[in-house]
Structure formats: C-alpha cells, structure tokens
Amino acid sequence: MSTPTFSIHDEVRIKELLLANGHKPFRYAQIENAIYKNFITDFSKIETLPKEIREILVRNCHYQSLRVHSSSTSADGQTTKFLFKTHDDKMIEAVIMRHLSGRNTLCVSSQAGCPMACVFCATGKLGLIRNLDFSEIVEQVMYAADTLDKEGRKLRNVVYMGMGEPFLNYENLKRSIESVTAQKKLDISVRRVTVSTCGIIPGIDRFADEFPQVSLAVSLHAPNDVARSRIMPVETTYPIDQLMASLDRYVEKTNKRIFYEYIMISGITDRIEYARELAVLLKDRMAHVNFIPYNPGEGIMGDGMLPTSRLIIAKFQHELEKAGVPSTVRHTMGDDIDAACGQLALKENGESLATEQGRSMGKIS
Ligand code: SF4
Fold it and tell me: Residue 92 forms beta bridges with which residues?
C-alpha cells in the first residue's frame, strides 16, 4: 500500500487543496456527496467533478487507511466484528449489531488499545498503543454504513464503546462526531450517538459544554470507592464522589439521562449490598442502568472471572426498581465471535501488553 497522503475525510485540508489549485469552494459539496452519500471510493469515478479535480484527489488523498484484517459474523447473523489493521499495522476493532427491532448500531474504537487497565477488559490488557486519528474513527463508521447499505439496511446508531477511552483522545473524538453527525456527511442523528467513558472528569465537563445532545454512558461497575478501585484504576484519580458531582453538572447543563454501565462479575461486582448502595447512589438522579453480564471470552481474559447468574442480576434490578431507578440487562451479542471489546485484538497480539499508564492517567490528551 502506498504511503497515505491525507484523508478524504479531512474537510479543512481538502478545501485548502481546492483553493490552492484555483477551484471554487462549491466543488467540496460535490466531493462530499460522492463520498458520503454514494460511497464512491475511487476518486477517478466522481463524474460530477472535472477531470483535473479528480486527478488532484487521486494524487493527494486516500479514502480508507484501514484495511480489514478479518471479519466474522455470529451464527445468528446479528453481530459482525471487524478487525482492522491501521496503516502502521495496529489492530483495532469495530462491531455491527443488527438488533431484531431493525435498529443497526456500530460500536467504534477511539484508541488502539487502552491505558485504563480495567481488570475485566481485554482491551485494558493491551495497554495504550496509540490514539486513533479522527479519520480512522470515521472510516470505521463509513465501512459499517457501506456494509449495511449493501444489505439494504441503514446505520442508525454509533456508540463509542469499542477499544479505548474516548475522552483521552478528545480532539479526535470531537472531529469524528462532527463528521458522523453532519447532515451532508454521514447524517447520523446526534441523539443517536453515545460516548462511553470510564469516568474522566475533565472530559465529561467539556463534553457537556460541546455536545449537549450526544448521549453519555459511564462505566461505573461498582457503587463505592473500595469496590471500584479493585477493578478500575481510574478510581484512584477520579473517585466516585467527584465523578458523581461532574455527572450532576452534566445533567444540569444537558437535562439528559445518563446511562450507567454495570458489569456483573460473579463474586466481584454482584454482592447484594452493592445493589442497595447503587440504588442509594442513583436514586433521584436521571439515570438508567445497563447491567452487562461479564463475557469471559475463551479463557483469554485469565483471572478466572465468571458472569453473574440471571437470578442475582434480577435481584439487583429489583433493588433499583424499589428506588425508582430504571435498568435493563444488556442482551449479549456475538459471544461466539469474541465480540466483547478488545478480545480479537488481544488474541491477534498474542500476549498481554498491559502497561502501568492507566494508573497514572488523568489528563485529556
Ligand atoms: S473498559 Fe474501556 S476504559 Fe476500561 S480498559 Fe477497557 S476500553 Fe479502557
């Protein structure tokens, strides 16, 4: 593959290129239409453009820097997982979920690996490899939108819940959301985009100001500092009281309900007293809890952790219900293809590359 020049998704640079070559700005609208509405990947085939502009694009731009290393679809056909290789041979993952309701969701990665080292997460075992450029995030969405388009389906939802902590790659997160939601580009409703954080407070505060309509999910996974710090090193930088204060500020600014992710790991996060503490913590807050049965993969996670039984999850839900806190149990999709975040990439890398960085992280990069 030849060395990439710059991404066709980089609107600023494309406009500069057009201008530098004496072309009018309206030409960008034609490029935009060809790329995002008609999924034209070969610039020489954008017939609405004069030959000269097509040649400029061919010489200076690339459409897709990610290559599909592998893809697999679950036996029920609902879940497809892509393992992409970046231009510098890093592995990242994206997962399409075709819900029975007809809604199609893509889970995207924002980093190759992740520095946050949550103990239950395959990506956390990789450590941070590097931040993804905004165009690499947009490319994941483009690829999924194109795949679904060929099936006669439409991509409706994008969730930043794949590899990485999005708020540690804030600028690229921001630019990618702008492209994904722009009407003239991928035109995904801003209300159908969700960003999930493990609790990076400066990111939450900035996000509330800049993207008040985008949904926020928070990986809480434990109701108190002691329990949380056992499984999430971020807790030592941003303890629960400070996290909840920032989430209260978020709700005040956006008037939006927050989705709290709570992983159910047998004997670790599912003690019944935690259910009561969780109810107290979230009572009177605009909250919705998603219980996620732990996905152990094929022994790759190590640690011998097991998912909580359905009975105990029901007990957790009952405690929340008594406190008026709504909750759902996330339907696990794609268990047969290692669809939990990071499992494929971890397999591909063959061994744990976990770093200590997660324990000292705290600033937005
Ligand atoms: S759960 Fe999220 S924040 Fe934690 S290590 Fe995995 S990718 Fe990173």
Answer: 84
Indicate the range of 3-12, 202-211, 264-273, 288-297 predicted with least confidence: 3-12
Q: Specify the 3-state DSSP secondary structure of 131.
A: strand
341 is catalytic: yes
CA of 281 to the centre of ligand 1 (A): 22
Q: b vs e for 237-270, b when ≥16 Cβ sit within 10 Å of the residue's Cβ?
A: bbbbeebbebbeebbeebebebbbbbbbbeebbb
CB 229 within 8 A of CB 117: no
Q: In angstroms, what is the span from residue 117 Cα to ligand 1's centroid?
A: 6
**Which atom of ligand 1 is least distant from the CA of 121?**
6
- For the chain, the first-to-last Cα distance in angstroms comes to 30
Report whether 97 contacts 162 (CB < 8 A): no
Kindly state if the Cβ of 121 falls inside 6 Å of ligand 1: yes
- 164 Cα nearest atom in ligand 1: 7
Q: What pLDDT was estimated at residue 168?
A: 98
Give residues with Cβ within 8 angstroms of 316, minimum separation 6.
262, 264, 270, 272, 274, 275, 278, 291, 327
Q: Where are the beta strands (DSSP E) in 172-308?
A: 193-197, 215-219, 258-264, 287-293
Classified as helix, coil or strand, 139 is helix
For residue 291 the two structure tokens come to: 């219980």
114 carries an active-site annotation: no
What are the percentages of helix, strand and coil residues in the chain, rounded to 5?
Answer: 40, 20, 40
What number is the average pLDDT over the span 30-39?
93
Other CB atoms within 10 A of residue 345 CB: 26
Closest Cα to atom 7 of ligand 1:
164
Task: Give the domains, in start order, of the chain with CATH numbers.
Answer: 6-62 (1.10.150.530), 67-360 (3.20.20.70)
